[in-house]
Amino acid sequence: PNRDWSSDVCSSDLGAVAQLVVRDDSVAEARVALFGVGERPVRARAVEAALTGSPVTDAAIAHAAACARDEAIAPFDDVHASAAYRREVVSVVTERAVRQAIGRAA
After folding, report:
1. What DSSP letter does each residue of 37-87 carry, written as one string?
2. How far is CA 53 from the centre of its chain?
3. CA 86, CA 82: separation in Å to the nearest integer?
4. Predicted TM-score (pTM) of this structure
5. Bridge partners of residue 27, in order along the sequence
6. CB neighbours (10 Å) of residue 1?
7. Would you state the pLDDT for residue 13?
8. Torsion angle of alpha carbons 30, 77, 84, 81, nearest 10°?
9. How far apart are CA 99 and CA 84, in angstroms?
10. pLDDT under 70 in the chain at which residues?
11. What are phi and psi of 24, to 5 degrees?
12. pLDDT given for residue 2 in this prediction
């Protein structure tokens, strides 16, 4: 199976890292981590669960990325970004990382 890590980082030191195994146009395995959304990086288990077993479609990717906002994250305010901004943007960087990983794993 093809495996690849992909990451996306925005300017507020917020980002996502994804590793996917894609088989027969479906996600067989997914590992996703988020950083800059709390005191330390966290596994995005809701995103992983949404991806695993799903077809590689725009709708499935968007749904999984939206799950990033529901993760057990505790965004914070700092000089780079507000907590509200971090909570909103986490799904965007997650979607980018997942799409990059799919492109490399396919």
Report:
1. SSSS-EE-HHHHHHHTT-BS-HHHHHHHHHGGGGSS------SS--HHHHH
2. 16
3. 6
4. 0.85
5. 22
6. 9
7. 80
8. -80
9. 24
10. 1-12, 72, 106
11. 50, 45
12. 52
pLDDT computed for residue 70 by the predictor = 80
72 phi and psi angles, rounded to 5 deg = -80, 70
For residue 90, what are its two tokens?
A: 């986490």
- Note whether 18 and 4 are within 8 A (CB): no
For residue 7, the model assigns a pLDDT of 54
Which amino acid, residue 90?
Answer: V
Q: Which two tokens stand for residue 89?
A: 């943007």
pLDDT for res 6: 56
CA dist 4 and 84 (Å) reads 30
